Amino acid sequence: MEAFGKPAVLRVARSVLKTGAVCDHCLGRQLAQVSTGMTNSERGRILRKALKAKKSRKKCAVCSDIFRRLEKYADNAAKRLLKIEFGTFVVGTRLSGDMIAREESL
Ligand SMILES: [Zn+2]
Fold it and tell me: 41 C-alpha to center of ligand 1: Å?
């Protein structure tokens, strides 16, 4: 938790938030190297709180709020898997080039 109070960490977090509406998940992912053992959303919430920055009501400029819809995507995948007999499976994602570019621009 000490790492979150370091000026360099807060400076990066502040600069990420200045780029526009960024959700906690995307904020936390930008500083994933700061701490382990927590989710990106948790890390982002801690950083936002440390900066006393309010959550934006706008869509996240990086992920377009895709992380808010994860449960819906998981439910959809689970329904589709019910139709298939399997012993193991691998899950992958394919992000749009636009989303990757927005993330990298931060
Ligand atoms: Zn986001």
Answer: 9
